[in-house]
Amino acid sequence: MEQPTRTRMTAAQFLELPEDRHPIQLIEGKLVEMAAPIPKHQRLVKRFANLLDNLVPNGEVFISPIAVYLDENNVPEPDVVWVSEDGRCEIQDTLLRGAPELIVEILSPTTARYDKTVKFLLYEKYRISEYWIVDPIREQVEVWELTADEYSLKGTFQPTDTFASKVLGNQMINLTKAFSI
């Protein structure tokens, strides 16, 4: 299985890279290059973005590639990001600056372990209120909520399940449309 390529650099160097690059992100000062996503992955990105767009009246949804500047060593590019209008994340001309309220990552064979470990800890450190990890193979979503200073698993949900999202005002999230083909 192909592993992400890593090269050391700063956020300033990262942000000077040309826009026509492969999917990359800066994690702990390392440039992480990923393989281009497959159609099923992109389909789920679109569906989860649409799901959030239809639920959230007071914020904005972004899809990858979108740089989220967390600090000088961390500029991840999550698959789906929701920024509330009164949150800590500032929408700038070229990137998002600060921690958004919700991040959704769609797993792929080359990124699954990375998304569940390195990025999990990064999002927890920067206090992203909810982190949804979508597994397209198992067709399930792990929902992690920030409680105090760490994530706790709210649950693992199947395509026919619904759950209440605390960060989205306890709105019920129905996963049926996200996973239907």
Account of the 3D structure:
The protein has one domain: tt1808, chain A, CATH 3.90.1570.10. A six-stranded mixed β-sheet has the order 4-6-9-10-11-12. Strands 1-3-2 form a three-stranded antiparallel β-sheet, covered by helices on one side. Helix content is about 20%, strand content about 35%. With about 180 residues, the protein is α+β, with helices and mostly antiparallel strands. The protein has helices spanning about 10-15, 40-55, 110-115, 120-125, 175-180; strands spanning about 5-10, 25, 30-35, 60-65, 70, 80-85, 90, 95, 100-105, 130-135, 140-145, 150-155, 160-165, 170-175. A hairpin with a 5-residue loop joins strand 13 (about 160-165) and strand 14.
- Label the structural class: alpha+beta
Write the CATH architecture name. Alpha-Beta Complex
Percentage beta strand: 25-35%
The CATH topology is tt1808, chain A
- The CATH class label is Alpha Beta
Q: Report Rg.
A: 15 Å
Estimate percent helicity: 10-25%
| Number of helices in the DSSP assignment | 5
- Main β-sheet description: 6 strands, mixed
Report the span from N to C terminus. Answer: 27 Å
**The named CATH superfamily:** tt1808, chain A
Low-confidence parts = none
Q: Number of DSSP strands?
A: 14
